[in-house]
Hints:
single chain; 3-stranded antiparallel sheet; 9 strands
Amino acid sequence: MKAVLELRDVHKSFMGKKALQGVDLSVGAGSVIGLLGPNGSGKTTLIKIIAGLIKQNAGEVKICGLNPGEETKALVSYLPDTQHLYKWMRVEDAICFYDDFFEDFDRLRCEELLDYMGIDRADKVKDLSKGMYEKTSLALTLARQSRLYVLDEPLGGIDPVARDTIIDTILSNYREDSSFIISTHLVSDVERLFDTVAFIKEGKIILDGEAEELRIERSMSIENIYKEVFRNA
């Protein structure tokens, strides 16, 4: 089976400042990869390229063997790190919006996820707490039948109880033919999810590999490897 995602020597600059410098990354089917690094390391830029929101200046990006475009947007389900739902919406409106917009959206699956996370369909988006908003967004994202789920800081600013619910929801959505990229700096909460990890610093992948192999090789958790790698970041 082809890799779900292949990046080769990807570069991106903004106003002359290098955001990504020669990034190589491969994501196999049925895997969960942690994209780990502090704020400003290049995680969000890389994720936006994968999601088809911006284009690299150089290098190759392949999603299920295809160049990024309209076709690949249908293969990638993207959870941004910013609020993207309209404030006038109720949760029910957001469900209808996704149902209309995405052919692969599974409304029943979304409602099951919302029930599990205790979200009321009548709630207004503008009145949701940060944790409730993140849960709602995650349910909408995971209810698509996509090949690649790209989650940018899904736990940022979320209380520990809500984090556990979100992690359980991600685990329940696992399929052998799809993959996850989870960008985060809150490593301890999610490291049990990762099959592989890639540490990014100043736009470069400085360490990557199988999560369990790195734990054994370095005799420490992924969180402690993170602290060691970015101690002076």
